[in-house]
Amino acid sequence: MKSVIILFLVFLVFDRSRTEESESTGPNCEQILSMPLLDNMEATLKADLDVRTLNKFLQTFIREVVKIEVANVIHEDMKKIMNESVSDVESIFDDRTNEMKLGLDSKFDELTKKIMNESVSDVESLFDDRTNEMKHGLDSKFDELTKKIMNESVSNVESLFDDRTNEIKLDLDSKFDELMKKKAAI
């Protein structure tokens, strides 16, 4: 109820001061305004108010109220803007983090595949190298054995040939001696 009376009072004072502004302006204004007021018992009272002092008080009061309300509105708006900004930043951060994670996961998978492929290639290459070394070693051993067998075979063949040749020679010599003996006997 008091706030209604104060607002009514403010309205009347401003309305009255606007209409009488030309009469009560400047630092020397001493016009007195009579205004009806209501007390708690709703009885009409009459007060004589100094317009200049009342105007200063009301201007200060209105400035403070406006200042507080504007500060509250700005504070609420800034709080809302900050919350929205923080929410937007968090959303962007989450999106970028997820994008980076997906990118890193795919790069990790690619690297893993590449390493596995290189490992398989390395294993295949190592296997091929070892196989070739073993084949070369076996070929070398086979060649050595072949040469050895051939040398032994040739030696055996030569020995066998020499033995057979000697046998044939002895046989021929003995037959030749017999023929010579037969010829000499004839």
TrEMBL record:
Residues 1-19 form the signal peptide. Keywords: Signal. It comes from the Eukaryota. The keyword Signal applies. This is Uncharacterized protein. It comes from Mytilus coruscus (Sea mussel). The lineage of its organism: Eukaryota, Metazoa, Spiralia, Lophotrochozoa, Mollusca.
